[in-house]
Amino acid sequence: MSNFHPGFAISPTSDPLGFLYGADTFGPVPEMRSLAAIRGSLREPNCDGPDPVYAIAMDVGRRADETELRQRMMLFGAVSYAAGRLGSEPVRSQGHVHKISSHSGWSPPEVYEVWAGHAFIYMQERVADDPGRCFAIHAGPGDIVIVPPGWAHGTISADVDHPVAFGALCDREYRFLYDEVRKRQGLAWYARIETDGTIRWERNPKYQAPEIEIHEPGNYSGFGFDDEQPLYSQVVSNLDRFQWISNPGLAAHLWRQFQP
User: pLDDT class for 257, splitting at 50, 70, 90?
Assistant: First the structure.
């Protein structure tokens, strides 16, 4: 699906959706997200689209790193999207926030890395009638995007003709919360596909949303990331530097002024 190497032996597949694991890689049988499971967050809940919509594998990595990742309460996930569209929208996730972690007292941040295709990492400050600031970050293979603690977010394909795959780094107590998103039929902005294939952003009328900001990934060097290595390689080579993933309070000064 892509020439980008994520730093360990995992390969996303599109037919069928899922992943191939190398001999030194651990990972579960992927969960398949059906179209029925995400209809409640779509602009057109009764639309047609690929089914399953995406495959998700939570807790993947090199066997040599598994014990220490568990001890540090860190977890990598992997997601593979089908190509196509969901009515007038690109293939996407339903959007979620994370449950407050019992060991940190924070709703965890999440760090995304696109492996194949192009995607928008959409995020908003909260799931409320006033969602606060709203961003859509356009990312391609190798790009890293950070979603801050407590923010609602989802991933949207930026090219309906090609499958998308990405990895995500999170607290091991990452539990997804969907109720407030579903109650409002999704997040505050929908991505709509124009007749020429371009994306137009449309407000979800169930929110009082400000304008959306759309741009490329920001500079995350303050969080310890660089552009030289895949996300997985950076993290496992210096786990102390990235302990803020499962203990977000270590980066509290960065969250206060955060710009995606």
Answer: confident
